[in-house]
Amino acid sequence: MITWRRLTEQDFPLLRSWLEQPHVARWWNHETSVEAVSRDFGPAARGEEPSEDLLAHLDGRPIGLVQRCRLSDYPAYWAEIATLVEPPAGAVTIDYLIGEPRDVGRGLGPRMIRSAVRAIWEDHPDAPCVLVPVSVANRASWRALEKAGLRRVAEGDLEPDNPVDDRAHYLYRVDRPAEPEPTAAGPRRT
Q: Do residues 66 and 96 lie in contact, with contact meaning Cβ atoms separated by under 8 Å?
């Protein structure tokens, strides 16, 4: 079972080790110095900004990270996504990684994404959907989104996380499930 908890500053050494892994570094393209990790992840860990960095645990062992935020909390990002589709009010986006190489290719990505989406529905009851941009070149990532039940809704040019990539991106979406219609329970027949 996948469980979640907020990333803390005590987790930064683990996060640094994950960001240094070649399979993560290729797509996240993040500085891994102590100062850079503290600078970029510290404000969310301390609750000083609206994004949330969550550690995913499988049976108590940390396996990955999910960043989530409302698009409206980051107007420049909202505007960039709006070049592909008009995001509905309250839309949430995620970014994610599987930390250890031994955990890659075992189906944990789709499981983690499904779990993250369920957590969004619970933690953000007014979020109508989750929108996730992904580089066209990152096949493993967009396949994980598809396996997790997200559907491709657009493609176009967005700023890449890694400057070695071109601007071609897919945009994936999953909508909040409809609440079941209440039914009047009739008498039980035996």
A: yes
Cα(181)–Cα(36) distance, integer angstroms:
49
Residue ranges of the chain whose pLDDT lies below 70: 180-190
Length of the chain: 190
E strand or H helix at 140: helix 139-147
At 41 the three-state DSSP class reads helix
3-class DSSP state for residue 160?
A: coil
Kindly report whether the global pTM for this prediction surpasses the value 0.70.
yes
Amino acid at 181: E
Interhelix angle 34-45/12-19, rounded to 10 degrees, is 120
- Which distant-in-sequence residues (6+ apart) come within 8 Å of 182 by Cβ? none
What pLDDT is attached to residue 179? 75
Measured over the CA atoms of residue 171, residue 176, residue 177 and residue 178, the dihedral's sign is negative
Q: Are 71 and 106 in contact (CB under 8 A)?
A: no
State how far the alpha carbon of 55 is from the alpha carbons of 52, 95, 171, in Å.
10, 12, 24
Amino acid identity, residue 144?
Answer: A
H or E stretch including 53? strand 52-58
What whole-number distance in Å separates Cα of residue 162 and Cα of residue 30?
A: 9
Nearest of 72, 74, 102, 99 to residue 87 by alpha carbon: 72
